[in-house]
Design brief:
With 151 residues, the protein is α/β, with parallel strands linked by helices. Helix content is 25%, strand content 31%. Strands 5-4-3-6-1-7 form a 6-stranded parallel sheet, sandwiched between helices.
Length: 151
């Protein structure tokens, strides 16, 4: 993989490490969404933006009115999607995405790369030499989940 550093950002139930249920977040926490947005949007260098990298199911779980996520370059990883939605990049896997984002014009315009889900993308990122930081919020509620942050 290319040399760009990546960060994972996730929220999980402290009870069972759950991160999803029926293709959606298992909770609605305004403060967590604000934190996620701030971390993945804020940049230190004017004129740059961050990229959020996600699997197809994570993309589809985002309510339509919030897609693509504003103020960030949205990147979908999918082997089944045939074309990218408007203003979104599509790659078949994380290695290909990191390679592309490590070259012009992205290397000059993208400050940070954030993995935002789902489980398979987190799993791949966690064993990557490119992993730099993990932003992991523990949500202290007991909620039923069918996807877990178990890497």
């Amino acid at each position: 993989m290319a040399g760009r550093k990546i960060s994972c950002i996730a929220a999980m139930s402290s009870k069972n490490r759950g991160i999803g249920k029926d293709g959606k977040l298992p909770w609605r926490l305004k403060s967590e969404m604000k934190y996620f947005s701030r971390i993945t949007t804020d940049v230190k260098h004017e004129g740059k933006q961050n990229a959020v990298i996600m699997g197809r199911k994570t993309w589809e779980s985002i309510p339509t009115k919030y897609r693509p996520m504003a103020g960030r370059l949205n990147v979908i990883l999918s082997k089944t999607m045939s074309e990218a939605p408007d203003n979104v990049l599509l790659y078949p896997d994380l290695a290909t995405a990191l390679d592309a984002l490590s070259q012009a014009p992205y290397v000059e315009s993208i400050e940070s790369l954030f993995i935002v889900g789902g489980h398979g993308v987190y799993k791949e990122a966690m064993v990557s030499d490119n992993l730099h930081r993990i932003y992991l919020t523990e949500v202290h509620i007991d909620v039923e989940c069918d996807v877990f942050y178990r890497i």
